[in-house]
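Budget justification aside, the reviewers requested a transparent look at the raw inputs and outputs of the sequence design task funded under Objective 1. We therefore reproduce one unedited record. The lines immediately below are the structure tokens for a 82-residue chain.
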């Protein structure tokens, strides 16, 4: 999977990144993924604390988070017959 240009979603206007999967299919990802992880930090005095931080290398399919995703969805074979 390789990351390509970023652009804006035609449905919701959010920034997205395009990837090309190993099978050659283009797929939109959220440019800023809503994925967080716990990180342990150490203060100068040696005290430690844990905080939530955005996971830097996490990507989420934009089809999961886009409120307008249905306008881009292709009908299933069953839906196409009806």
């Amino acid at each position: 999977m390789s990351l390509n240009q970023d652009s804006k979603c035609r449905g919701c206007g959010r920034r997205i990144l395009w990837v090309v999967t190993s099978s050659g299919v283009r797929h939109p990802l959220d440019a800023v993924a809503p994925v967080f992880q716990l990180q342990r930090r150490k203060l100068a005095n040696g005290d430690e604390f844990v905080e939530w931080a955005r996971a830097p290398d996490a990507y989420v399919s934009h089809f999961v988070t886009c409120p307008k995703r249905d306008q881009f969805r292709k009908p299933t074979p069953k839906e196409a017959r009806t």
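The longest helix spans residues 77-81. The longest strand covers residues 2-8. Computational costs for records of this kind are itemized in the attached budget.
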